[in-house]
Write a structure and sequence with these properties.
The chain has 263 residues and is of the alpha/beta class. It has eight helices and seven strands, in the order E-H-E-H-E-H-E-H-E-H-E-H-H-H-E. It has one domain: NAD(P)-binding Rossmann-like Domain (Rossmann fold). 44% of the residues lie in helices and 14% in strands. It has a seven-stranded parallel beta sheet with strand order 3-2-1-4-5-6-7, sandwiched between helices. Helix 4 links the parallel strand 4 and strand 5. This is Short chain dehydrogenase/reductase.
Length: 263
């Protein structure tokens, strides 16, 4: 049956930034599809809640509390997956971010930090994971979470947008280097209702304006990203590599404008 192509039975995934939001939704979605998961973030209480959701599906979760801004902590995740579960099939590089800041207040160090956190951490995990994927599973799927801001220009997002654009192109480059046994794809979310969007979504006027500026007339849910990740990770996406899925409600321009007065 075609639905069998979306199963992850017997597979093991590492998901970074998995304590809440997109990472939590992806980890629990993978578990519902049959995978065991290694979930990593800085806050243990958040991870424990996600682990309970994973275990409620009948799958196993390994909680790793770590500061994922540290490349060594990221690198250790691949080994933890193999040590606990004996294999590694899927990696989701979800950790990342950078605060909005006016362009002239964005220093070279700000750019370097954004690149290191969004691209450097992903690369660290890829380097650690690929040999273990090949040795234990023979193949694998890597999914990088970039952003619609890496494609659409927006005020005050120079560091974040540039880093996410770099991650998208890193995805394409890594796919060429690692094919045919390792597939590398990315998801570019639009405005998704997670804690990162609370300050905006909690304002009825701002939320209404964002919805009006989105062709599908709504903001995204974490499950919108989790289902896209499941497609890319599973056999259903086995003929895709080097692609960036734009899961953003059809945006062709940013749906949140920062006023000049705020710059």
């Amino acid at each position: 049956m075609i639905l069998d192509h979306f199963r992850l039975d017997g597979r093991v995934a590492v998901v970074t930034g998995a304590g809440r939001g997109l990472g939590a939704a992806i980890a629990t979605g993978f578990a519902e599809a049959g995978a065991d998961v290694v979930i990593a973030a800085r806050t243990e209480a958040d991870l424990r809640q996600v682990a309970e959701q994973v275990e409620a599906t009948g799958r196993q979760a390994l909680v790793v509390v770590a500061d994922l801004a540290d490349p060594d902590a990221v690198t250790a995740l691949a080994g933890a997956a193999v040590e606990r579960f004996g294999r590694l099939d899927i990696v989701v590089n979800n950790v990342g971010g950078a605060l909005p800041r006016p362009l002239l207040d964005t220093s070279p160090d700000d750019l370097a930090e954004a690149f290191a956190f969004n691209v450097g951490t992903a690369h660290a995990l890829v380097r650690a994971a690929v040999p273990k994927m090949l040795a234990t599973a023979g193949s694998g799927s890597i999914i990088n979470i970039t952003s619609t801001m890496g494609r659409l220009p927006g005020r005050a997002f120079a560091a974040y947008a540039t880093a996410k654009a770099a991650l998208a192109h890193y995805t394409r480059s890594a796919a060429m280097d690692l094919s045919p046994r390792i597939r590398v794809n990315a998801i570019a979310p639009g405005s998704i209702l997670t804690s990162a969007l609370e300050i905006v979504a909690g304002n009825e006027q701002m939320r209404a304006e964002m919805e009006r500026a989105t062709p599908l007339q709504r903001l995204g849910e974490p499950t919108d990203i989790a289902t896209a990740a499941l497609f890319l990770a599973s056999p259903a996406g086995s003929f895709l590599t080097g692609k960036v899925l734009e899961v953003d409600g059809g945006l062709i321009a940013p749906n949140l404008a920062i006023p000049l007065s705020d710059l």
